[in-house]
TrEMBL record:
<dbReference type="InterPro" id="IPR000683">
    <property type="entry name" value="Gfo/Idh/MocA-like_OxRdtase_N"/>
</dbReference>
<dbReference type="InterPro" id="IPR036291">
    <property type="entry name" value="NAD(P)-bd_dom_sf"/>
</dbReference>
<protein>
    <submittedName>
        <fullName>Dehydrogenase</fullName>
    </submittedName>
</protein>
<dbReference type="InterPro" id="IPR006311">
    <property type="entry name" value="TAT_signal"/>
</dbReference>
<dbReference type="InterPro" id="IPR050463">
    <property type="entry name" value="Gfo/Idh/MocA_oxidrdct_glycsds"/>
</dbReference>
<feature type="domain" description="Gfo/Idh/MocA-like oxidoreductase N-terminal">
    <location>
        <begin position="42"/>
        <end position="168"/>
    </location>
</feature>
<dbReference type="InterPro" id="IPR055170">
    <property type="entry name" value="GFO_IDH_MocA-like_dom"/>
</dbReference>
<feature type="domain" description="GFO/IDH/MocA-like oxidoreductase">
    <location>
        <begin position="188"/>
        <end position="321"/>
    </location>
</feature>
<dbReference type="InterPro" id="IPR019546">
    <property type="entry name" value="TAT_signal_bac_arc"/>
</dbReference>
<dbReference type="Pfam" id="PF22725">
    <property type="entry name" value="GFO_IDH_MocA_C3"/>
</dbReference>
<dbReference type="GO" id="GO:0000166">
    <property type="term" value="F:nucleotide binding"/>
</dbReference>
<dbReference type="Pfam" id="PF01408">
    <property type="entry name" value="GFO_IDH_MocA"/>
</dbReference>
């Protein structure tokens, strides 16, 4: 096991994160490990064939470049089959994945990654550190979905692999798509230029009705049940504050050009309380405290029948701004004068932009993207939020980052048990504030 990163590593991490805020271009240095198959075809492999993975492959194949899907990998045969059918019916010959390049099982990624120039890492988040490490080892250009880990050891693994990716000049784009969305790019550029002064407060939200449930079926092992219902188990998902709300927390860090130094807050299971909902909370409300004293409030919840809210607001010393994923951005000073109002019409799809920009760089042999530092920063900010709500304690960044508590199973196999198991009634242990050991 790798040792926790030391204080100097953390300082370097913070420095790199600040430099890369907003997904800034790195350089036009030719790629090391770029696709070099002797043709202009860029071969891609899809690792994780669920809805998001299929969507990512759809976007990659929809770019203007000569791209061919040549390998697919998933833990489950049915998910791979459904994804293959969907993609091949849409893209025809661009999907060239015969049976001998369709891989199923926990080790499927090891067989698919070597076959491609670019890999799409879109499995449940708990596997992201393992798959990212292997893709870097294999010198691949990478698109990977958010979040990038579910616990502190996973974050450290991702950071170590990210350093190797930089040395090898491997492009890495992470699916925090607001970083590729026009209203956010234009607004945060203005914020960083001082349009509303120093940001001293903010509010970020992801309040919605929640997600799917997949009932337990006969003869399922516990490993299969949890894998099928990955959203409700922290070793796979990280809780919805990590898996989903990371988008909004990422905007807070981007606006601040920093990460919180401590987090405190509260959460519970108030609505989704049955055995179908695993171990995660259905609501979190936290305060992110930054080094300059600024405090940003973060709220996410999964209650059915509620008013939904997914947006961000920030208050600076000279003005304020409202942002949303629906392309809105309204900036005003405190007299009410409008400083910026983003035109919501005709904006590009940020999910597509991620792939357009990545494959443009790959096709030209350029090294432009290292999104991992800010993605790891924001993922870990959300993880600390979970630590805070589960424990009821104020969690400090450096202490949390040094934690060696891993959520991952000791062994990946269908007959292996995850660390968290249900009781005789089928209920899972729930973190109790004041009792839960998180770091």
């Amino acid at each position: 096991m790798k040792k926790p990163i030391n204080q100097q590593d953390r300082r370097d991490f913070l420095k790199a994160t600040a430099m890369l805020a907003g997904g800034a271009m790195l350089s036009s240095i030719p790629l090391a490990g770029a696709y070099a198959s002797g043709s202009d075809t860029i071969k891609i492999a899809l690792i994780g064939c669920g809805d998001r993975g299929t969507g990512a492959a759809f976007q990659a194949l929809s770019t203007k470049f000569n791209i061919k899907l040549v390998a697919m990998a998933d833990a489950f045969q049915d998910r791979l089959d459904n994804s293959y059918q969907s993609l091949s019916s849409k893209f025809g010959a661009k999907v060239d994945v015969p049976k001998d390049r369709q891989f199923v099982g926990f080790d499927a990624y090891l067989k698919a990654i070597p076959l491609a120039d670019v890999v799409l890492l879109t499995t449940p988040p708990g596997f992201r550190p393992i798959h990212f490490e292997e893709a870097v080892k294999q010198n691949k250009q990478i698109f990977m979905e958010k979040p990038v880990a579910v616990d502190a050891p996973g974050i450290r693994k991702v950071l170590a692999a990210a350093e190797e990716a930089k040395k090898k000049k491997l492009n890495v784009v992470v699916g925090l798509q607001r970083r590729y969305q026009t209203n956010y790019r234009e607004s945060i550029k203005r914020i960083n230029d001082g349009a509303i002064g120093d940001i001293m407060a903010g509010q970020v939200y992801w309040n919605s009705g929640g997600v799917w449930v997949r009932p337990r079926t006969a003869n399922q092992t516990e490993m299969e049940y949890q894998m099928r219902n990955w959203y409700y188990f922290n070793w796979l998902c990280g809780d919805h504050i990590v898996e989903q709300h990371v988008h909004n927390i990422d905007i807070a860090n981007w606006v601040k050009n920093a990460h919180p130094i401590s987090v405190q807050g509260t959460g519970s299971r108030a609505w989704r309380t049955g055995k179908d909902y695993g171990e995660i909370y259905d609501n979190h409300s936290i305060e992110l405290t930054y080094a300059d004293g600024a405090i940003i409030h973060s709220q996410c919840r999964h209650f059915e029948g509620i008013s939904n809210r997914v947006d961000e607001s920030f208050q600076g010393t000279k003005g304020k701004i409202y942002l949303s994923g629906s392309n809105q951005a309204i900036m005003k000073d405190y007299s009410g004068k409008e400083l910026y109002n983003h035109n919501t019409k005709g904006n590009a799809n940020p999910y597509q932009t991620e792939h357009d920009e990545l494959f443009d760089a790959v096709s030209k042999g350029e090294y432009k993207f290292s999104n991992v530092d800010y993605a790891a920063t924001s993922t870990f900010s959300a993880i600390i939020g979970r630590y805070a709500t589960y424990s009821g304690q104020t969690i400090k960044w450096d202490e949390a980052l040094a934690s060696n508590i891993s959520l991952m199973p000791e062994r990946f196999a269908w007959d292996a048990n995850p660390k968290l198991m249900p009781d005789e009634k089928g209920l899972y242990p729930i973190a109790m504030p004041g009792q839960a050991k998180v770091i």
